[in-house]
Amino acid sequence: xxxxxxxxxxxLGNTVQAWMTSIGIxxxxxxxxxxxxxxxxxxxxxxxxxxxxxxxxxxxxxxxASVVPMLYFGGAYxxxxxxxxxxKAYNIIHTALMVIFTFYVLRIITSAIKYTxxxxxxxxxxxxxxxxxxxxxxxxVNVIVWMLGIxxxxxxxxxxxxxxxxxxxxxxxxxxxxxxxxxxxxxxxxVIFFDRPFEIGDFIMVDDKSGTVEYIGVKTTRIRxxxxxxxxxxxxxxxxxxxxxxxxxQERRIAFKLGVIYQTSYEQLxxxxxxxxxxxxxxxxxxxxRSHFSGYGNFSLDFETVYYVEDPDYPVFMDKQQQIFLDIxxxxxxxxxxxxxxxxxxxxxxxxxxKLNINMPFLKEAGNGSTIKxxx
Length: 376
Description:
Layout: H1 3-8, E1 10-11, E2 14-15, H2 16-50, H3 55-79, H4 87-122, H5 127-156, H6 161-178, H7 180-195, E3 203-206, E4 209-216, E5 220-225, E6 230-234, H8 235-240, E7 243-245, E8 252-260, H9 266-282, E9 286-296, E10 301-309, H10 314-335, E11 343-347, H11 350-359, E12 371-375
Antiparallel strand pairs: 1-2, 3-4, 3-7, 4-5, 5-6, 8-10, 9-10, 11-12
Helix pairs in contact: 2-3, 3-4, 4-5, 9-10
C-alpha cells in the first residue's frame, strides 16, 4: 500500500493526513507554549531578583496557573480546525472552550483583585491583622465576579440572559427583604473595615462591656472580655453604639475631687493646691495640670485636681493614682487638715430646747449649749 493511500484513508470521518496535520499543529503549539513559558518565567524570575515589589511573583503565578493552560486549550482547539467534524461536535468543543477560557479569565481577575488589595494592605501597619479582616470582603467580591462571568458566558453562548438578570433582580429584592438584619450587618462590616474604628487586637468598651477584639466577621465581631469569656456582638450594634477604643489611648487624664471640713483655716485652704502640685510633680511619668478650690459643698470645702498619666497602661495608671492618693493623705495628716465626711448641724432656740429637755431628758446631757452636732 502506497503512502498516498495510507494518508488518504478515512478514520473517524477524517483522512489520516488530516489527523496528522491536526496532531502536528497541536504539538507545534505545545512546544511553542513550553518555550514561551520557559523564557518568560526565566525573564520574570531574573526581574524579580532585581526588584523589591511582589508584582513579578504575581505575574509568574498567573502565567503558570492560568495563561499557560489557556494556551494549551487554545492549541487543542486550533488543531481541530483542520478536521471535518459535525456541527454538534463543533458546538460541544466550542462551548467547552468558552467555559474553560471564562474560568481562567475569572481566575486572573479575582487573583488581580486579591493582589491589589493585599498590596495596599502590606503598606500599612498591622498588615497581618488587616488581611484577616479583608477576607470576608474578598469572598463577596469573588462571588459577584463569578456571577457576572457566568451571565457573560451564557450571553455569549446565545442564551437569553434577560430572564436570568430579571430573576436575579427579583430574587435579590426578596432576599434583601428576608435578610435585612444580615445585610445590615454586612454593610456594617464594610463600615468597620474601611472606617476602622477598631481593629483586631484593640481593647474597646461597648456600653458596659469591655475586652479585646479577637475576630471581625461578616456578621458579628467577637470580643474577649476581662472575665475571659467571648462576647459576640453584631456589627450593626457596634456601628450604632459608642465604642471607646483604649488601644489608641496615648495618655490618661485624671480629674478627682476631695473635700475638707469647714473648720479648716484660711491659710490651710490656700496651701492645699500647692501641696497637691508638689506631690504630683514628684511622681515620675505624671504631668500636673491644675488644682483649685472649686466650691462650697453641703458639708465640705471642695478642691478639684487634674493631672495626666503619660502611660496608657491601666495597671500603671492605678499605681500612679494610688501613690498620689497615699501621699496626699500623709501630707494632710502632717498639716492637720481633716477630710470632710457627711455631717449635719442642728440649731435649736433656747425655748425649743427646754421643751425637748422636758420630753426627752437624755438631751440634758448635752448641756445648755445652743447647738447639737451629730454625724449623718
